[in-house]
Structures are given as structure tokens and as C-alpha cells.
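Sample 1 of the test manifest.
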Amino acid sequence: MLTVDRLTIRNRAGRALVEDVSFSVGPGDRAGLIGESGSGKSLTALAVIGLLPPGLTATGEVRLGDTSMIKGQEKLRTRVRGKVVATVFQEPLTALDPLMPAGRQIAEPIRRFRSLRGTALRDAVHAALDEVRLTDTDRIARSYPHELSGGQRQRVAIAMALACRPQLLVADEPTTALDVTVQAEILDLLDRLVDTHGTALLFITHDLPVAARVARHTHVLREGRIVESAPIADLLARPAHPYTRTLVDSARRFDAALGRHLS
Amino acid sequence: MSKRLHLYIGLVLVLIVAGAVLVSYLWLPFAPDDTSGGRLAPPGGDHLLGTDKLGRDLLTQLLIGGRIALGTALGAVAVGGVLGLGAGLLAGFATRWLDDAAAVVLDILIAFPTLLLAMLIVAGTGASLGTAILAIGLAMAAIVARLVRVLVKQVLGRDYITAARVAGVSWPRIVLSHVLPNIAPVLLVNLALQAGLAVLAEASLSYLGLGTPPPNASWGRMLFEAQATVLTSPVAAIAPGLALVTLVIGMNLTADGLRLGVSDADR
């Protein structure tokens, strides 16, 4: 499905921001990419969809099915986006156009990939909103992003990403900007949707407990390199790399603090 | 002053001028070339504002000058807006070296005083209202282009553009439905401000004899012609001056009110 092979991303000065990163995600798989900010996880996500910001160059290879996302024709990549791969971003306020009603934003990819128009398009938009558990779909579809809550906005973004049934969903810190309670709801929602549609998931986060909840095989990224790769359960139980150990330990300390107040 | 008040006062001032201009197309107190009132008649009687040194009715001249002022504002904003938006969009989307080149050219154009640029163009082609509008519009286009370039770059960096591209939306469609609506508020504020500056620029050009040629009355030329008799018949100078100030302040306050409204919506 997705293969990333010795991906290296350099800036204009030639400094490597991501170095020699390799991993793969099979159909229906759930991979985790965990690391602190600046570790290169978001750049890796952008390289996967073939939309690195100008000034950054990627070497190595990223393949989505048969299509290279860093070499070859842009036209071929355009064909893959939306249909094969879709994304959910960290900040739902900037991920949605502030001047476009939510419904129209969801309609964009549907119109393009499923060639629906008129009432059929409207129904598809409502179905997509329904799927992310938004009630009162009429009102939501007409609302501008600032009229929606953070959780609702992220649901709309997820609806937009999943509307065309991509085979791979790249979720870049989709819950980081949300309240803890809303976080849990969104994670459950992603979990369920990815399961029902058999969508593969590349889940990017800095938050180990969040990764533990949705990801299976997880790669720990630090300063642009993968320092450890293992199923999440093994990572938690037997962290091999010192950095992973620090991550696990600090997560456990939070847990311990909660436990102390319980007793 | 509250932002609403800015906008309302500004719009009222602009609408007063616009209304007077509309009326002038339906009704004028005298024919523009009617000199039956005698030279430099004082205000009052048939001639509400008196007559100028050729005996033409001042109110009539003032109304016709209003047509030219508003026409210049609309024309220059149209020229500057269309050219500036086009050039700014191109630069905003261009590759790095092309964009750098565009930025330098725009900075040089902007460093050049608008009036001087307009005078050069008018000197080359001869004074007429059309060339004055074109010249002012071109100078404005450089300012608008630089603004649009920066705005486009800002919007292109937003996640919703990436989201739209991931969703396979084509570039023309992204520009039409995401980029243009998102740069429109700031662009509109700037154009309103530029409209006021265009009115002033046209008046300055006409004052210098480089704008509207006689016999058409422009407020700038009325000011110039009233200069010699300002002590004996001050109304001939005060009336166009006041009209000019009303329109320009109106446009500036409108821009101000819009700007405050826009930054409010951003929050």
C-alpha cells in the first residue's frame, strides 16, 4: 500500500530534516509515527501526500500503490490524492476554509471523484456528515467553520477526508488541538471508521497514550531518524531505545500522578 | 470612534457626492458653457455659489467636477485592481526566481512617486482624462500587486489549501473558491483607500494642467483657476476644496471602517 524507502528531506541549506526514514503500511494496517515537535513527523506526512512546501527536496522513494509521490509526474500524483490517500490535520480551524460553508468543502472531493451533482451530491454530503456522527446535518452543512466547535470542525475535516473512501488516511496530530474529552470521541470515531471501511491509517502524534489507543506498528522518530520500530504493545512493555524509554516513563508518571489522587 | 461609525460616516460622505453626481446627469442648474451670469458673480440669487471668472455657474462646474472625480476613482480602481490582482496572483504562484524578480520590479515601481509616474505617462501621451486614469491606475496596480502577492503566499500556506489539493481540487478551482474569497476582504479595504488617493492624484494632475483638459471642470483645475481671485471671490476656491475633502475623507473612513470590520472577523 504505502512504502517509504530511505526518505531524506533537505532544506535549501542542505540540512537533512528527515533522514533515511523507511517504513511501510499495508492495506488496512494502522501505523503510528511518534515523535516530539521538530522530529520531522509532519514533513514525513507531507512527503507521503507529495505536497512538501517549496524549498524542501526529498530523496529516496515514497510509493503509494504504483505511484511515486516524490518523483515523476505531478499529474499522476493528483490522480492518487483524495482517491487513494487523504489527510486530517492538527488544527481544524485552519484545515477548513473560513469563508466556505462546511457542506461545500465536503462536496468538493465528492463532486470530483464520485461525479455527483445536485440532490445526489447533497445527499452524499449529508451521508458523510452522518457518518462522523454529526446530528442536524442541515445546519452543519450550512455553517461556516467559526460557527462550529473544535470537535465539530474536526469531524467535518474527517468527513471530508473519508468522503471518497481513500485506501490510506494520513492523520497528522488530529486530536492535539482538542479538549481531552473531545479527543477521546474523535479517536473512537477514527477508530471505528477506519475499521468499517478497511482504511489503512498512518497516525502521527507526539502523545504516546494517544498512539497506544489507535496505532499498531509504531515508529519512533527523533531528530529526523527512526530510532525504534515495534508493535505499540512491545514499545510500551520493552522500550529498547533510551528515547522511547523516556517517552514511556513520562507517560507513566502522568498515570501515576492520577493514581495517587485516586487513592 | 466605533468602527460602525467610521463606516457609516464614510459611506454617507461618499454617497452625498455620488448622489450629487447622479443628479447632475438628470439636472444641472445651468448649461456648463452658459456665461450669462457675468464674471465672478457673488453667491446667491440664480447662481447659488456664484460664477467663476469666465461667468460659468460654479455649482454646475462643481457637479461636473464630481463626475470626473468619481469617474477617476472608479476607473483607476478598475485598472489598478484588475492589473494588480492579475500580476499579484502570478507572482504569488510563480517559482522562486520569477517571484523574486517580480518583487524587485514592484518595489521599484512603488518607490517611484505615483504623481511623478503619472506625469511621465501624461507627458508622453498628452493630457486627457483617459491617460490620467490610466496613469493613476498603473501606479496603483503596483501597490495592489505587491499586496496580493503577499496575501496569496499567506493563503497558500494554510492547511485548507493543502486539504483542497489532497482532495484533488484543480488549481483554477482552488484560486476561485479558496484563494480569491480569502484575500478579498483585505484587498477591498486597500482598494477603498486607493480610490481616495486616486481622487487626490487626479485633482493634483489637473491642478498642474496635466489632467482633465478644459472646458471640462475638474476640482483640481477649478482650484487652480480660483487661485488668482481667491481674495475677492473665495467661494470659487472653497467649494471645490470642500468637495474634494468630503470625497477623500469619505473614502478613507469607508476603508477604515471596512478594515476594522475585517480584523474583527479574523479574531
